[in-house]
Amino acid sequence: MNLSQLVVLVLLSWSGYKGVRILNTLYALELGASPFAVGVLLAMYALFPVVLAVYAGKVADRYGVRVPLLGGMVAMAAGIFLPFLHPSLPLLFVAAAIVGLGFIFVQISMQSITGSLGAGAERTRNFNIYALAIACTDLIGPVSAGFSIDQFGHVPTFLMLAAMNAAAVLGLLLVYRRIPATAQKAGDRGAQRMMDLVRQPALRRIFIASAVVMTGIDLYQLYMPLYGHAIGLSASAIGMVLGAFAAAAFVVRALIPVLVRRLGEHKTLAHSLFLAAATFLLIPFFQNAVMLGAVSFVLGLGLGLGQPLSTILTYNHSPAGRVGEALGLRIAVNNITHVAVPVIFGAVGAAFGLSPVFWVNSVFLALGGYSSRGGGAARA
Q1: Which of 204, 99, 251 is nearest to 161 (CA)?
Q2: CATH no. for residue 264?
Q3: Contact (CB, 8 A) for 252 and 301
Q4: Is residue 155 assigned to a domain?
Q5: Res 377 pLDDT > 50
Q6: Is residue 54 part of a domain?
């Protein structure tokens, strides 16, 4: 399997995933859900990843990624399709959990494949291309969902997004035999403990910085639609604002090789968090879609670097034979924030309004940037 084939699968499967998160938020609001309920709904996407991320990584390390990748894609397509069959608020929660279950196996499998396609500078380039593909899905998913909602309604949009993931399943079947059937051999797995990874200072700093990045992205993806809905923006306008964020992420990820050569991965990650912290402060001061799009673009420049850099750093610092487990642990930490942050800040938003949520998150991002400045020796 080559990188271009993987990119096609990313574009199809992740676009459906990114789109349905926005669709679920707006449809839940249409059905009368409160900000707290919407926060719980988004947390459902992380319910299974919190529990299964490390396990999914171990499966990839020990048995290969063929079956987990296919099973995950099928689960994602089924979860997105479910609300089309029976549109209701309770089913949105069930569907979100199913999509999250499939997504964790897809995510770790794709990251493992990407890292295995090269070493050193080539690996950084591959992860950069992978990150650019994900940035494209951040644009394709929300924008296509927003326009589909305005043109056809919420329920038909579930069918459209499910079709993207069904196409990804068919594409995967075409290249299925090109994916290695077994994983590489490692040492004595009986003596390996998850806490050994946590005790490594370099990996621990990466996990914390990655969680802070995901907190910022989660709050943006949750509260920008809520904020746009509160100030009277249409679904397509909200989709375009979110698309500006995605466009910026694409632009800045294209610059990763240059930034890394000049500053190194750790300093680049710290500076990106400081930029995001400054930008989050500005969101509540604007109610115009164009200005919010401009602010979102700058925010995307900051947060857009966090995921690919933390993934590269995790892969590079992980012990031999435990790449999938380390990637899974990073995702598990991220998904703890996926569960906790929407629920906690949903309650804060319901009690105090939306502005304090943006400002408190700005402080978190600044602290994350400060703590992520350290470095460490990476493996080749």
Answers
A1: 99
A2: 1.20.1250.20
A3: yes
A4: yes
A5: no
A6: yes
